[in-house]
Amino acid sequence: MTTAQTQPSKKALRLLKAYGALDQRARGWQNLPPVNRYSGEIARGNDLVFSMNATTLEIGQGLSGLRGYLWTALLPGSLAMLIGYPVFLAFRWFLVPELEHDWFMLFADFVFVVVGMPMCVLTLAMGFNDLFGYADSPVRFDRARRKVYVWASRKAGPLELDWDRLQPLTQSATALPVQVNPMKTVLLVERDAQGNVLFDGDYPCVAQVGHAGLTREASVAAYEFVRVFMEQGPQALPPVKTYLVWRPRGLRPFVDIFGLMGTLMRSYPSLPKHQRKPGWLVFGVVMIGLFSVALLPLQLAQGIAQRWGNRIPKWGQPYRDYAALGGTMAPPSGAQPNDLPLLPHEKLIATIWVACALWPWVWLLVVKLG
């Protein structure tokens, strides 16, 4: 397989509109210096790296941050409709044929069979993908071959991008109405001479560096970590405190609602005094607690998906051979897994959230049904 050099297919041409000039402005794309020049931020690789060796660095794209939240609603609902409505139709048409079947009922049955059933099948597939889909789409940086491999679930294997042809850029996008603050990411994009994003088959030649964050500085610092590895080698990298794991352990994935404890509250005690905002911290804990009766079941669903459901991507033999040239792939030396046990103040916050989520049910059982 070679890097995409041709024009995209007709099917991909429709997708190209998502990366056109207008959409690039909507996404807030801004070019960074070329990959062989300093980006302006100090390299940081915390919560970025899966494994690495002397020639290969494997990172996550952070594409599964919301995976696992929806399967508890999608799977039961779609299965109930797929099984229940045909049974209802059979009962109404064949077991009780004397029932009156007016034109409205006939039309409703027709619409459900033609439209509703395919929608239920699609929803069922979305639920299965949410529970059993791949945990992330990792990216490997091969400094020996000057290549970037973006893992993809397809027969042709990963996307292969030329490191020296990639244009790093920042993206600032807001997913309304879910969030108000724009999320910052760094993308590595391969373009043609006219500035259009190239495609490899139906896949855009784009790699995201780590998960999205609230600050541009953090996203660019993660990219600088990758850039230093490719340009100078692993000996020039700063120490990494925490690395990514595929199967998180402990209670954290079940109680850390939206990852707020791991990203914001875990480091709060170690922050300088001038950076601490106790009012905002209390406000965040209280607001999550007020909505925890709805949010905690979603977090439990994600914890189940991450621990037992989501699949781990497997690289093909050629890519394992490429990585083997640099030695055994392993987590960064001296780093700890990012599924660290809950700290005392995190346990307190988790207890508050669980109590807030349980009290309506306790009240219902004791007061109303007791």
Which terms summarize this structure?
disordered N terminus; five-stranded antiparallel sheet; 11 helices; alpha+beta; globular; 370 residues
Helicity range: 40-55%
Please give the largest β-sheet: 5 strands, antiparallel
Spell the H/E element sequence. Answer: HHEEEHHEEEEEEEEHEHHHHHEH
The whole-angstrom Rg is: 24 Å
- Could you tell me the mean pLDDT? 84
Question: Which descriptor suits the 3D outline?
Answer: globular
**Fraction of residues in β-strands:** 5-15%
Structural class label: alpha+beta
Query: What is the number of helical segments per DSSP (H or I, 4+ residues)?
Result: 11
| Number of separate strands | 13
Report how far the terminal alpha carbons are from each other: 67 Å
Uncertain runs: 1-8, 10-16
Q: Kindly report the spatial arrangement of strands forming the biggest sheet.
A: 2-3-4-5-6
Question: Describe it for me?
Answer:
The model is unreliable at 1-8 and 10-16 (pLDDT under 50). Strands 2-3-4-5-6 form a five-stranded antiparallel sheet, covered by helices on one side. A four-stranded antiparallel sheet has the order 1-7-8-11, with helices on one face. Strand 9 (199-200) and strand 10 (203-204) form a beta hairpin. By secondary structure, it is α+β, with helices and mostly antiparallel strands. It has eleven helices and 13 strands.
